[in-house]
């Protein structure tokens, strides 16, 4: 990020105005690091230089606060998206759902799914996986398993990450039999568990103290 910022400053020193694409690139980099002060500074600088933010810009702002574990601020930036007349897309809603997953608030994450459906944005496997992560982080493996079964029955179709998350949820809760059962279930539905799926089970059970 530091090297990118130096190029960013050099561009201006050489007499060129950074474009929207340049601003969005540097904003995304700082957003992924959860550097909220930096993204706020860059956003204000962008606006003051007459560069109009777009949906990518706003999503970067939301990501920064999600990474900083401040879902309330993510909600505030979503409101700004709507105030500006932009249409919040699936990517923006995923940022919001993920913000609640990070802080282990599954009820709020599920509310976000309902809200996006209400405005006509169809949740994908990626959004459901974020809710599964929220349930796992909240130590609610049974609820995560029920959600995964619902995905199997009526969609969206679960992927390997969906199963890994549920395996991890049971493992972290010290429920080894359930974790192994879901590992076996993956094979039953024709999905070969990856090394990562096994490692998640090992890591979760080790941290839960369930090793011989």
Draw up the topology in text:
Elements: H1 2-13, H2 20-32, H3 36-48, H4 55-67, H5 71-83, H6 90-102, H7 106-118, H8 125-137, H9 141-154, H10 160-172, H11 176-188, H12 195-208
Helix pairs in contact: 2-3, 2-4, 3-4, 4-5, 4-6, 5-6, 6-7, 6-8, 7-8, 8-9, 8-10, 9-10, 10-11, 10-12, 11-12
Description:
The structure is a single chain. The protein has 212 residues and is mainly α. 74% of the residues lie in helices and 0% in strands. The chain has 12 helices and no strands. Helix 6 runs antiparallel to helix 7 and helix 6 runs parallel beside helix 8. The protein is elongated. The N and C termini lie far apart (44 Å). The model has no long low-confidence stretch (mean pLDDT 94).
Outline:
This protein has twelve helices and no strands. Helix 7 runs antiparallel to helix 8.
Note the main attributes of this structure.
single chain; 212 residues; mainly alpha
Given the helix and strand composition, which structural class is it? Answer: mainly alpha
Overall geometry comes to elongated
Give a count of the beta strands, DSSP E runs of length 2 or more: 0
Rounded to an integer in angstroms, the radius of gyration calculated over CA atoms is 20 Å
Mean pLDDT across every amino acid position: 94
Report the total helices: 12
Percent of residues in beta strands: under 5%
How would a crystallographer describe the biggest sheet?
A: none
SSE ordering? HHHHHHHHHHHH
